[in-house]
Amino acid sequence: xxxxxLPLTAELRQAVEDLADASGRRPEDVARxxxxxxxxxxxxxxxASAERLAAAHADLLRRLGQ
Length: 66
Hints:
Blueprint: H1 10-23, H2 27-56, H3 58-65
Helix pairs in contact: 1-2
């Protein structure tokens, strides 16, 4: 596993530490879970957008593939 250094503002760092403390987890675990959730949600949003574009241009895409 490669380590990634992610600079956070003092406000974000404090929020991560507060949530970690309140939930009995390590700050790294809270941050990792937040990144996973963001990637899941953003990936779903991007896929939905791509599917809408593909559907809107399906005829053109089909003709280009001929």
